Amino acid sequence: MTIHRKTEEGLRRLVGDLENIPAPSHLKQAVLRRIEAEPARVETDRDGGIVAINPAFTGLCGYHFSEIKGRKPGSFLQGAGTDPETVAILRQAVKNGESCTVEMVNYHKDGSPYLVRIAVEPIRHEGEVTGFRATETALPMA
Q1: What phi and psi values does residue 17 have, to the nearest 5 degrees?
Q2: In sequence order, what are the residues at sequence separation of 6 or more whose Cβ sits closer than 8 angstroms to the Cβ of residue 142?
Q3: How many CB atoms lie within 10 A of CB 60?
Q4: Looking at residue 38, what is its pLDDT?
Q5: How far is CA 73 from CA 9, 30, 78, 118, in A?
Q6: Rounded to an integer, what distance in angstroms lies between the CA atom of residue 61 and that of residue 76?
Q7: H or E stretch at 134
């Protein structure tokens, strides 16, 4: 189990525990605001299959981990309005094990488009790329 996955599980338990604290609780609200402020994150294995997401990722695109585990993000997030040249830049960076940042149109689970900035970085273990972590930030549509 990766540290990231342990952290995500810990946050889920924390949110569950916080929901049971009687209101008003300033601590409860502060922690929930902090969790909600986290950017959307997705982690993949070296082949691009999703191995972890955070709650903000579900909030951004509408997909839950059980629906997308093992799938490549582009297989369900990209669509007709996604620029193929931007996808090619992203794929080349992943192929080369490099970091990159792109802005592209993705699609929510309900099919509606959204503009997103995706910052991808390789995850390395003993110098070898073992996966990728992406941080996604929604941007205003033009």
Answers
A1: -65, -40
A2: 115
A3: 22
A4: 80
A5: 21, 31, 8, 11
A6: 10
A7: strand 128-139
Kindly state whether residues 31 and 90 are assigned to the same domain. Answer: no
The pTM is what?
0.75
Do 28 and 91 belong to one domain?
A: no
Q: Which of 122, 133, 140 is nearest to 39 (CA)?
A: 133
When pLDDT is cut at 50, 70 and 90, the band that residue 71 belongs to is very high
| Burial of 132 per CB tally in 10 Å (0-12, 13-18, 19+) | buried
57 and 106 co-located in one domain: yes
What does DSSP assign to residue 10?
H
User: Is the domain of 65 the same as that of 132?
Assistant: yes
**CATH number of the domain bearing residue 107:** 3.30.450.20
Under a CB-based contact definition with an 8 Å cutoff, are residues 108 and 76 in contact?
Answer: no
What would the mean pLDDT of 111-124 be, rounded to a whole number? 96
